[in-house]
């Protein structure tokens, strides 16, 4: 978001997108947990019954990534013993955020009318590199792309993202190699280091790795709405 400071409206849209992404993800997870709690699981209630708690649900490294890279992530879902969080719980967060991003895109189209978004890149929006349009249009576009990037990034199979839990569900019989990878990525926080490096260090065409990948993955969504 620091790169978007030159465009206050875009900065505001990205900031709201990140905060909304955190809140929507947590609320979706808590609602699923409270609706059906598997055996051995206990829905956290340290926050006095609140659905969202800053200390419990905000990852400081995710905030750093958002401040510098434009988008970030929330706190890792705690495992139940050696097993990952339930599949439906892991899917609830990113799916809810992605749905919210499509609602934001719809609001943008209703305000701006038919526009061409196919030539726009997600990284340019995350860096506030926008021109033309009214303040409301720029805010809604930044909000929509910010939510879209938050939801897609959360599906990357690296801890502490929900995509890592999904990968662990996919690996039915983890071998020694996977256990070693889990030890380094999860227990030794190498996953967080990779995520931060991939969000902050320029690598492809002057872009960090994950912003470059977000450009590719977000393009079909931009083309759909544009």
UniProtKB/TrEMBL annotation:
Q: Where are the transmembrane segments?
A: 6-28, 95-117, 138-158, 192-225
Species name: Cryptosporangium phraense
Q: Which UniProt keywords apply?
A: Membrane, Transmembrane, Transmembrane helix
Keyword Membrane set for record: yes
Q: What is this protein called?
A: Site-2 protease family protein
Classification lineage: Bacteria, Bacillati, Actinomycetota, Actinomycetes, Cryptosporangiales
